[in-house]
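Batch manifest, entry 17 of 40.
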Amino acid sequence: MKIAVDSNDGINIASPFNLYQNFMVFEFNEKSESVNQVKSVIKYDHQKRLKLIKSISNTKNIIREIDDCRTIISHNLNRPMLNRFQKAGVEVYITFKNRIEDAVGQYLKDKMIHEFTEGD
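Output type: structure tokens
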């Protein structure tokens, strides 16, 4: 699964006050060594499962640059950019976490909870 994160350094999510959007695209290895996926998401080190693929800075056609990403993680997106991503079918995940590793972990945990309870 490919995830784009609003970041300038690959470690932290960019401040919501940044004027320019820079995205780093990571590939996340979903395979887990644990049989119980919920436990592995909570306890497993996500940094070992994230691989940086590319960095995108200040491009006019950012949708095309991250069109193979399933999710965007950010602190804040302006309304036009949010609408463009949603129209393109990209899931936007707004977080208050500062570190990419923590935000990805929270996203996966929320996603699993949502998928688990959706069947009820």
